[in-house]
# Entry
Amino acid sequence: MKKSRAVTGLIVFALILGLLGYTAVCGVGADKSGSASSIKLGLDLAGGVSITYQVVGEGKPSAEDMSDTIYKLQQRVDGYSTEAQVYQEGDDRINIEIPGVTDANAILEELGKPGSLYFIAQTDSEGNNNYDLGYGVDADGNLVPQYALNKTIDELIADGSIVLTGTDVADAQARAQQDSMGNVENVVALTLNAAGTEAFAKATQKAYDNGESIAIYYDEELVSVPNVLAVITDGNAVISGQKSVEEAQQLASTIRIGGLKLELEELRSNVVGAQLGSEAIHTSLIAAAVGFALVVVFMIAVYYVSGLAASLALCLYTELMVILLYAFEATLTLPGIAGIILSVGMAVDANVIIFARIREELATGKTVQSSIKIGFSKALSAILDGNITTLIAAIVLYFMGSGTIKGFSITLMLGIFLSMFTALFITKFLINALYAVGIQSEKAYGVGKEKKTIDFLSKRNLFFGLSVAVILIGFVVMGVNKSQIDMPLNYSLDFVGGTSTTMTLNEDMSIEEIDAQIVPLIEDITGDGNVQTTKVAGSNQVIIKTRTLNVQEREQFADTMVTNFGVDESSITAETISATVSSEMQADAIKAIVVATILMLLYIWFRFKDIRFGASSVIALIHDVLVVLAFYAIVRISVGNTFIACMLTIVGYSINATIVIFDRIRENLRDKKDRESLQDMVNKSISQTLSRSIFTSLTTFFMVAALEVFGVSSIREFALPLIAGIVCGTYSSICLTGAMWYVFRTKFVKKAEK
# Structure
């Protein structure tokens, strides 16, 4: 690169950095588009809408029907925000909390009234019409068809005219497709379950033979009456004739929510304030600034000019992350902020791999320019393999997960793409530009020193035994916890539910004042620090969620509020609430992680041409998860929504660290001399990547430690197990993965190797 071109490039980069920085901080236009302040925030940071539905009908609904309804509603409201929550209140009520919105009426109108959905045949068994066609005039004066039922729903059920109900529909999605004339039309694609597939095949055969239609009836009106143009036997149907994308999306939404087993009616709706005060955001931003500064200082102190280039690229990474979070309409919660702060530390990972390679090339006597080129080239495979394996996990989590898991996967995917882009393109450009403008001394980049080979493998039995012991201790502690408190882990409200108490205060108190004055008194009653507070906007009404309270504790709660704050006892109501992380959501998460693990195993097998690499990686990954689980059990950290994000972060972190060592083993295996033993080669590979493993852990540790020091209690509950995960992931990648591969390699030898 010529000096003039380098100078121009650096000036352009500085302008882009400044422009994106201004956009990330101040935004564009009156609505501040693209700025951090314009990103949608979760209930904990900005509040939102809280809606309570009551089950229609007499009698107590079954637990199975309530669970099924909650799960399907959760999938429905995920369209508003991946951080939306749906949970049971009492025996027959369902609460929906949607963050980042303030118009409850608009949400209710868009969400629709969850109720019964029916597919009705045009004629009954005797050939009589179940509905008739008429015509009316729309708002624009156009003649439009209007259908009316000739019978009640009970009569249609009795004479067998109901073809399907909403429970027979597995999914409904709006999409665009070409018709027979090549024109694009908006349609709704239906996917039926097994029972629905069989019933619909018979119904469409009858309708097709007679040239009839099948009507869709929902919320006491016929919402669509499509003609049957073919016999549908595979359970996949298409409803055409929608005039716009919005109309198709609305019909698809209606059909999805109509698949609920229970009919619901709105009981109440409120706009609620943030669960956490502004202080929580303030302290998180302080933690981000301190952690970021520590990473920058560390990178420059260790890698000199290369570290400066990486730090500038990291600034661009952070700005782009903010802008893209806005562009993808991600909902940001406090754990989400912690995850982004953590991703900044992990984004340095690719740079550390590259810089270590550059120093190794300089140590062999190559020129700085040549070392930079070779360093980026040799680091590429490790960076790609590590990030692709993590990307596989993120994609699986996005398509198979729900709620916060889906939101986490979006942030993870953004982080992966941005970290690769900034490391492989921006950092590379900056290093080459700085070299071209005259910073060409080897000392400015640091010459690698010859690394002493450490005999890790000779201590492999000690490492294996230590890991097994820690995991077993974890299971023993979980057993003790189960016998003492009936729970192996300290599950929070998110997992086990609790009591929601609503009361009206005599004076207007901010959420910070409530947390400072009221929450400590409640914690004394419950003996548990897991208390969540929410305030209804425009009123003095406060909602406080705690672990499940018995009758005596509820009375003590009421007495405390009356005595200390003069609350009218008649305004205090308490209801038992279910977990916000339902059993179905937990099952979805487990399925997603299992599928992701299998796909990562297959990818590593494909890339390294040896399943023993993949098997070792997966075992190390499971090891790290079990050790952190043991940490949760021993320290009794609250297990809530952040638990899932924490475990997923550790999975991505673990696989990344392992891939780097395996990449070096693969490289050294190709160059292995006949006189060099396999054990020596593995020890050399681990020693060569030792500084990378330690330095990457340190940069990530700086970010997480800042969260632990400066963060609020809910952030610290996320940061502390992550610190344990970072330490464990570093230990497993250095001490276990290479040793496991060596054991598999020597115990399970291929014929060709023999």
Notes: The radius of gyration is 30 Å. The chain has four domains: 53-108, 117-259, 278-472+582-747, 498-577. Residues 170 and 528 are 41 Å apart (CA to CA).
